Structures are given as C-alpha cells and as structure tokens.
C-alpha cells in the first residue's frame, strides 16, 4: 500500500477513525465467528484519544476497545515493547502512566487513513479532473450534480405565523430577508426582520435574552459571542431539533460547524462564514513586477511602494477605529503570529469549552503583542489620513473606489469589489491569505453568524422554527446567495457545486485554504468574557497606536483592567 497524495487535517483523521469504527463494529457483532480485532480497536481508540487531546490510561483504552481485559493488556504490553505505544507519566508523584501513540504508529496509521480517504474519494466523491487532495473526507461531495434552484414551495409549506428575526445589518442578511419575503409573500413581512449594526446587535441581544421577553424567535449570533450567551443558559439547545430537521452537520466544514457548539451541545447553526484576507490591486502589482506580500515586512514594503498621499492614493486600508474594529485588527494580527489573547491550544474546536476565567492566562502583555503594535504603527504610516476612524465599511470604500493598493477585508464584503456597479477595481483584484509574521503558517480568521433560538421560545414553536432555519441554511438557499455575489458558504456541497465555483474566485480560494487547515476559529476565542476583552482592547490599543500611550503600559493596563473587571463581577 502506497501513501496517497492527499494531506489529512485532524478533523478528517478523526472522521476516518469514526468511519472505520462504525464500519467494523457490525461485522464483529453479527458475522458468525466474528469478534473484535484487538490490535485494530486499540489502535483506533489510541489515535482517537490523541486527536481529541484526551489523556487515556490502560484501563480506559481497553474499555473503549471493547475487548477482554487480559487480551487488551497483553496487546498493549506488546505494543509498548514494539515501540508503538509511549507511556507518559501522570505527574504529581504518581507511578501510573497515560498512553499515547508513538510517532511510528501515528505516521503509519495516517498513511493507512490517507489510503482509505483516497480510495473512497475515487469511489464516491471525486468529480472528473479533481485531485484526491481536493476531497475532504466527511463532506457531501456528490457534487457532479448541480444543486437545484430555490423553490418557493420549500418554505411556503412551513406552517408558521410571522417569525421575528434579530439580525446583523449587512448585505448578506438584507439579501436573505428579501429572499424570505419574496417566497413567503403574506407570511414573511419585511417588518419581521430587525437588522441592527454589530455593536447595537450585541446590546439588544443581551437585553432581549436576559429579559426573556419574546420579542424575537431567531437571533443572529456573532460567532465569538456564543460562550457568553450559552453559558448563561439563554439559548435553546438544538441537538434534538437538528436530528428531526433537514440539516446535515457533515455537510458543513467541521471547524465552522464547531463555532456553534458549546461544551458538547449545539446552540447555533452556521448561516454564513467570512474570512479575513488581504486584497491587492493585481494590475498595479503586475505593472511594477512586484510579488504579493506574504509577511508583515513585505506588506509594509509593498504599501510604501504605492503610498502617494499627494495624489490621494494610499498603501493600505484596515480597521483602525476605536472600539470593536481596532480590537479585531489586533486579534487578527496576533493570529498571524500564531498566538491569541488567551493561552489555549491553537486548534479549531468541534466544541468550545473553557475553564473558569480565573484559571485562564491572558496573553496580551507579551512580546508577540509588542510586535503586532509595531506592525500597526507602521501600517498607519502608509494608510489614509482618517485611519484612526476607519471601520469595516470605510476600508472597503477606500479600496473599491481605487484609492488604496491593499486592504485587509472580510471575504463577504470583498464580494462587492466584483459585483457593485460603483467598483473601480472589478476584475483587477488578487485575493490573498493574510500575511503572517516571518513566513509562519497562514492563519486566516473565520468570522460569521450563527442562527440561534432563544431559550424562552416554547418547545413546540422551536420545532417549527428549526424548519425555517433549515431552509435558510440549505444548500439551495446558500447557493442562491453565492451566485448573487456572497462568496463564502460553510457547506461542502455548495463549495463543490460547479455553478457556485464559477461565480467568484473567492469561493475556490477559501475552499482551498479550508482543506489546508489555514482557516482558524481561535483568533477570537468565544469565552464568556469575550465582549469585555474586545471592549478593553478597543480602547487601549487605540490609545497606544494613535494617542501616544506607551505600548508596554497600554498592554499591561489592558490585562489588568480585564482581570479587575472579572474579579469585580464575582
């Protein structure tokens, strides 16, 4: 067996382990003379525990392998002797050990899993001309067929009175409202949709859910807010509802699906995801024979090359406005340094869970943060003069109007470069991964919104509402949005649809980044205290970058203010 030319992500490997487990179990249980394969089962469970970063001891491993203790014990001892299992001391003076796969076992199993993936891809999932590496194990990849158009009867059959929505005021939600209203006619009035700017959305979401007043049936939740509202018990758990609805979790990129899961329970359904990338004027770079920037230093050098304030042309646009915008810029630049504001494993989660905040270690007053501050100050030198008040909308305007050579932007808003009639840069844009520090691995932050149901909604009505949500996140509805200029959908089937792929260069670019594990959800960790962290950073980072405050003092003050606020809250 030769290893296949297809890189595996940890999510894929985890799904392959489960696939092999589910495939083998019926054979062992039902075939005459069938019985568990001791080596096979122990290897599967050992690799699975390693992937989940869940320490396992000998008894636990034998139990999960579902084999007699004596048989399992002999196999484990032999695998230790053969150098396939490592023993890791528990610590604290204990003489017992945890078990983990050796590099030899893990690498050989990955070769086997890659072979399984490649064989199944060729059997079921590959379109003609598609490479095995382009197949993502576990996705709905029967996409040689084109997803059918949205049909009005799909939603008009849902027996509901008006559903009240609290949503973000952006172009995706406006389009979704219009589609819903068009198909629902008398049932879906535009007045049912309350669209609010992001800071106002947070304030009103907090008020609505805490007061338990049934003003809204569906609330759009910014992904990093999930921990706060789920931890307070203000969101309805959706697992049982999903099982009866037309929502296939396996069709979503696992890292995106995981943004809606808190402590093992699904509270939100991803409606759309958007990626922070770098947009560059392709025509300008090509005319000067310049390479696209891949690092902080290269970004500054490229921006200086084009910066010409005398002609009202600037190097780069980014979010410098006080508050949420600059706080997000700071966290995204930290992600490019492969770190984040909290000491935590840098891996996308299929379910978020954190210790109490008192046990978490902040990573704000650090050398990495000082480097980010220095980068931001250099960006100011090659930015438009109003950079200190520039938000998401303003940075898009600068780039789209042809006034900057580069712009950090969300992919959802970048779609306007190609589709708006006022755009002066259509077909002149290169869409690039966000630059890293010193050629480190690419870390492109994921943003977007989850559709959630408030806990105060009656259970019977929750079952009706989940059907409406299922329609809104269906492949048909998402594809319609992609074709209309919204380039990022979190479903495999939509990303693989030939018509969707042809609609925007951003779709295939983001899908490639997802397969290479370059999309990260940890840039803005959804701890319950996220809003406190974001609000504090929005003030302190702005004072450092624009108002002359010492970086060391400002970062130290940010950490102390956050910790003091948590202590004051009890």
TrEMBL record:
InterPro entries: Bact_solute-bd_prot1 (IPR050490), SBP (IPR006059). Transmembrane segments: none annotated. It is found in: Periplasm. Keywords: Signal, Transport. Belongs to the bacterial solute-binding protein 1 family. This is Extracellular solute-binding protein.
